[in-house]
Write a structure and sequence with these properties.
The protein has 225 residues and is an alpha+beta fold. Helices cover 32% and strands 26% of the residues. Helix 2 runs parallel beside helix 4.
């Protein structure tokens, strides 16, 4: 009964999120900044995409996907993680280069805990996709009557298993989770803060979660550092 209720609650939340996001994308009124115009927004989106940041539609509308991509760029470049497009940020985008992977070898995933970003790296060592993440905040929390620490482990792992769609857990819902170690997964979440704030999982934006799972088969190496 509780599981069914949780699923119904999540379905409502997800429907509201997707409806809001879709209407915002269509109307172009999600988080459009006042300091730049449509031409500058389009240029910023094109530049973000060219640098490897996962933007969503490149259409001159500063929507949720654009904002996530900009925040990932700000994290990588050590800039203020405000997610607001300004002329200064556009200038920084114009001068930036595609980030380099830290590790070489076959296709893999890199999770940088300090910068709070995820790199998807191909067989040639090129960073093809960059997204912001939200990882464990190292605080204590209770689950099933036991105290745990919200820790994201460092090391070399592999995608062990994955679930299509939604999984409801005692700590919340996971969208297209890709498990890499015990209960730790890379999964879509409605809440991606600019700093560590998860129970240990590696949260990624909802709009990339399904495609990310498709791009990362079981046995893909995941390096967390």
């Amino acid at each position: 009964m509780r599981s069914k209720l949780c699923r119904l609650m999540f379905a409502g939340l997800l429907a509201t999120f997707l409806a809001t996001t879709s209407s915002s994308l269509a109307a172009g009124q999600n988080v459009k900044p006042q300091s730049v115009g449509t031409a500058e927004i389009l240029e910023a989106e094109e530049r973000l995409a060219a640098l490897g940041y996962w933007t969503g539609p490149v259409d001159g509308k500063f929507d949720a996907g654009s904002r996530h991509a900009l925040i990932a760029f700000q994290k990588v470049e050590g800039r203020k993680r405000a997610g607001k497009l300004t002329i200064e940020e556009l200038e920084a985008l114009r001068a930036a280069a595609r980030p380099s992977a830290k590790y070489t070898g076959s296709a893999h995933v890199e999770v940088d805990l300090e910068r709070q970003v995820l790199f998807l790296v191909n067989d040639e060592g090129l960073v093809t996709h960059i997204v912001p993440v939200c990882t464990g905040n190292e605080k204590s929390y209770m689950d099933h009557g036991q105290v745990h620490r919200a820790h994201t482990p460092r090391g070399r792992f592999k995608v062990e298993r994955k679930i299509k769609g939604v999984r409801i857990s005692s700590l919340g819902f996971l969208y297209y989770p890709n498990y890499i170690h015990a209960g730790i997964a890379i999964h879509g979440s409605l809440v991606i803060k600019a700093y560590p704030d998860s129970h240990g999982c590696i949260r990624i934006p909802m709009f990339v979660a399904k495609e990310f799972s498709q791009l990362v088969p079981v046995e893909t190496e995941v390096i967390v550092f």
